[in-house]
Amino acid sequence: MEPRRELESRGFVGQWRVYQRQALDAFDADVAAGDNRAYLVLPPGAGKTMIGLEAARRLGRRTLVLVPNTAVQAQWAALWDNNFPSTQPSASDCGTERDLTSAMNVLTYQSLAVIDDDTDSAVRRKVLKSRDQQALLGLLHPNGRALIERAAARGPWTLVLDECHHLLATWGALVSALASVLGPQTGLIGLTATPPTELTAWQHTLHDELFGTADFVVPTPALVKEGDLAPYQELVYLTEPTPDEQAWVATHRARFAELMLELIDQQVGSMSLAAWLRARIVDRSTAEGNQIAWSTFERAEPDLAMSGLRFAFDGMIPLPDGARLREQHRVAPDAHDWVNVLTDFSIGHLQRSEDPRDGHALTAIKRVLPGLGYRLTRGGVRVATSPVDRVCALSESKIAATAHILDTEDAVLGSRLRALVLCDFESMSGTLPTSLKGAPISNQSGSAQLVTAMLAVSDARRSTPLNALLVTGQTFACPAAIDDHLVAFCAERGALVTTEPFDAHPALRVVRGRAGGFSPRTWVALATAYFLSGAARVLVGTRALLGEGWDCAAVNVNIDLTSATTKAAITQMRGRAIRKDPNDVHKVADNWSVCCSTADHPRGDADYLRLVRKHDDYFAASPQGLIESGVTHCDPSLSPYRPPVTDAHTITAQALRRTAERARARAWWRIGEPYEGIDVATIRVRSGGSLGVAAPRIPASALTPPVPGRLNPVRLARSARTGLSAVAAGAGGVIAYANFGPVAGAATAGGIIATGAGIVTAAAVTESRRLEQAPNALERLAAVVADALHAAGGAERGAEALRIKADPDGWIRCELDGVPTEQSQRFTAALDELLAPLGEPRYLIGRKILTPPATRLARAAFAARAVMGLPVPGAVAWHAVPRWLARNKDRRRHLAQAWRTHIGPPRQLRADSPDGQAILDLFRGDNPLALTTQLRTTWR
Fold first, then answer.
1. Domain residues for 69?
2. Count of domains for the chain
3. Total Cβ atoms within 10 A of residue 801
4. Fewest C-beta atoms under 10 Å: which of 573, 679, 726, 782?
């Protein structure tokens, strides 16, 4: 049957969801406008396959769908045959062979990108970069070229590219060449769960040529809120290396620590490392003897500056002038920081020195760097394999953690448990690197084989076994205890199989087909059916096969043992568990990340930092009831910069308890409630001291902040009258403290008579009440930033759009509501700068920190001073004018007006003025109120 007629004879038998109709409407709009290329971004479980099939059906051309693997290929074919039935009995089934004779054909990307083995790798890379179409096609094996020639003879075509983030790989350029060969009339439909946000320039060019911009995007949280995906919670299990592994790590730590001590104490080399860091980072002197401004140094050498501040935080060097310790700096130096400073020391000093002692130090550093995962060459540092990182990543403790997780989930879910465990590989191929010689590690470490075998052994202690199946691209295996049952199950479904002992693991049996054609496409379907039946409640596989595209709505526990951190991989792996299950309307999926770290080596945090990257830009409901990106949605106490030192066990125990609290996790999502569907930048603030209150109605003469060390005649006169004792300096953004004598003697009798005792008393009473209810200064500072940005055109809304809330853990959360994401980011960045200790701002703005006394009488006396315009007791805080607002005079004027409205009389100074320099010299970098900020992103 002619392809158009066959496609027209078919129709979808289900009901389209709202967002699926919206995606198809966007596609139809493109076609109507003459654009035959569409790019649709939907999360796993959203029904991309159905959308892609329907879009191709509507175009009415012979279709070729390219997918990542054979398991996904089988799913596409089954959905076409079963969900798009034809009214014509002569209609063909979905084609899965290379002959391309059907109206709908599904092949893997690999079937197209079969590279000729004789092609030199350097030549291949050059051709791929050049993207010369004829040269690209020349790379193909004859089978690949025959496929393209066959396709060109059977057009016109629609190409559907499933999970098209794979186009970043080799076959991306080849698909582009294929589309060109098939002609400009070719329809092109790209489907993915991952927006192209992490592409190189070359990848962006390829992507834009194929698709242009995205035609339709829907984020995962939106579909959970709509009720079209299952709610989920992100959980983390933190573990440490086994005793044997820890002992091995300790030996590497000892070697590293010994060298660092020698370098720092100048036992090797002509200069100590500490002296070099002081010269490079603290002094920063030019050849002429001038000091390089910290902001200039930070821009020129951001990595070294970051590491230097961590060394300053750790007490090895003083805090450089002009520097500011942010959240990311308040951690001990990690391996990357050590590498940064050792590289700078080696290249900047040791390699240039002719002193034999420095040659000895250089050799010692080159010896120790591979233990951190780097190699030092004359041109700089190159990344190498870190043995400590490998031992932690492949630790047997992570397999023990997997068993613990499954025991806990089993106790909660029982027969409803359907768990997927994802590994990087079935078993390591090749020999281990020499750097791992003597390490407690083997080719089985961290492998899917070992995980399955250990779970099979642990079934002996369970009242109801898990019966975990091993499902990879090379192997299908089961526990020995169920091999007969699995063989009979497969026979009932027309698959004749047998089992044989698994040489490496006696507890397992390998499943083999009795006839040819027993491939992953077949055994994935059989394993999935067995899993759905409940006879096996755990599948263990590789992310290459089961971590992407594999569809099983029953999965309710997902355990990630992989090292993958890219957004595409994380979105795909998490997507295996969040499909709605028609047999479990109350399903809540638990997505587990298992992490092994140790404080016994600088590289011992590498697996934790991978954990952090896994959760960057991935949104999940948090215990605060927010939909938040970042590792804090696993537990609010987790830092994005370092692993927990003392409370790891508490964090893990809390995660295990949450498995029994699925109803609470579901409630965090507030399914069915309205949502805006936008990312919102949030700043969290915690202070170790009072920021005071805001009282802008107090006369300016009482509130105008003085410059430390400079008293004007009016103040001197008032000091004499009121018993003002002294002015002392501290910092708080930057704080100058003023201590006054007894308030009872604040005003002379003549002053009171002249002013009118009754008027003063009444005004003081009113002001005292107002001070009692005065807003917190943090709220008013946030309002200042919001209104200044709004007035200056940096935000669509001002202080009326502020959301300020106290979190249960003591942090104050602040965000600007109802504005685009980039504006909310501008607001949080500006407020963060305003609250920070002074670094090297262009402008300063000051305020009095008002802290009214607690008792009524003292507060009344305080108020009396204020209404008479006498300086009131309190510290002075100097803040940096945020960079966006400091950029021009008009923006600074809007800031001053907002300050006057919410805080009181502003006093702005240029940082390079004499007064500004005096303030910076006294207070730069100080943070006596222990103000800490965190920048986060939430979705709502």
1. 3-218
2. 3
3. 18
4. 726
